[in-house]
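hi! just following up on the protien thing from before. the input was this:
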Amino acid sequence: MNKAKIRYCKKYCDNKGITLVELIVVLVVLAVLASIIIPQLLGFIARARGSKLLIRGKSLMNAVQTQYLTLYAQAPPADVDGNPYTIETAYNGEINGTETPYLKKAATLAEMPESNAGFFFMTAQPQQTGDMEYITAKHESWKIKYFMYFEGDNAVYYNGNSWEDGLSFYTAYNKIKELSESKSVPHGTLFRYPKL
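and the predicted 3d structure came back as:
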């Protein structure tokens, strides 16, 4: 080996690697970056799940309303017993297997998971003060006013004006249940799909 190669090798080939101190500094820097980035990623994932639930809840409420408005347009004036045909008639018929599965179709359209998910809803029942308001009250009784959608323990709730998201199942359920028991707010029956 000639002297030039030996000098070159001594200058550049005697690299002993990184020291322990340098390794610790790199690890500390990585730990600091991880402590900043990981909570941000977890928050992003939680927000994405919440947004997905809210979007699915809105989609589902619209699908249910569309199905019931279609049914309202085609419904007979009375059921087989001669009583007025209402959402309750349609709901009970679907649950008993004697009516078209409108809620199941809405759940399919909104891509609701088949397990560990469901929804509650109520209509607004305006109080009638005279015969002239009967038709308006009948129309309103087919409109969904309050809605709660859940997947597992996560839920979203529509209070008649706006959506609330990031709720637990029990928080949202207590809101709609309390409303269903209220005497001061006119409302229809509280329905659940799928029925337990």
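The beta strands are 117-123, 144-151, 154-158, 163-168, 191-193.
The chain has one domain: 35-193.
cheers
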